[in-house]
Amino acid sequence: MSTWNEQDPAAIAFLFVACARTADGELVEAELVRIVERVGQWMPGASREQLHEILERAVALYQGAPDQRAVIGLVEATAERLRELLAREDRERLVTELIGLAYADGHVEQGEADFVLATARILDVEVALSTD
């Protein structure tokens, strides 16, 4: 099982992976591309190799969880730690990016919406959903 430190740059990547896998348990190409792009924005100057390594670590952590309860626990702990580490504007940016990731495959599943709302709540960021 991967070692994990919530201060690690992969913490944000882990939230992205967990969000993307919430709906159907898979990562589609559009989601992978968006995750790498978004993590790159959080790590200016990182090489493509570094970004892929971070994504691999995040995926390994997700896959290493023995069950969904463990995944939820990891998500909550990661979001709580990021709430402490990130300024409000960065937490708002993170939630906005999670929303964008949820839309990456063209539609938002209920599980993705629930994930974004729960994570936003932990990060102390207000989110309003459209009913359209």
Automatic annotation (TrEMBL):
Classification via SUPFAM superfamilies: TerB-like
Source domain of life: Bacteria
Residues annotated as domain Co-chaperone DjlA N-terminal: 12-126
TM ranges: none
InterPro entries cross-referenced by the UniProt entry: DjlA_N (IPR007791), TerB-like (IPR029024)
Name used for this protein in its record: Co-chaperone DjlA N-terminal domain-containing protein
Originating organism: Enhygromyxa salina
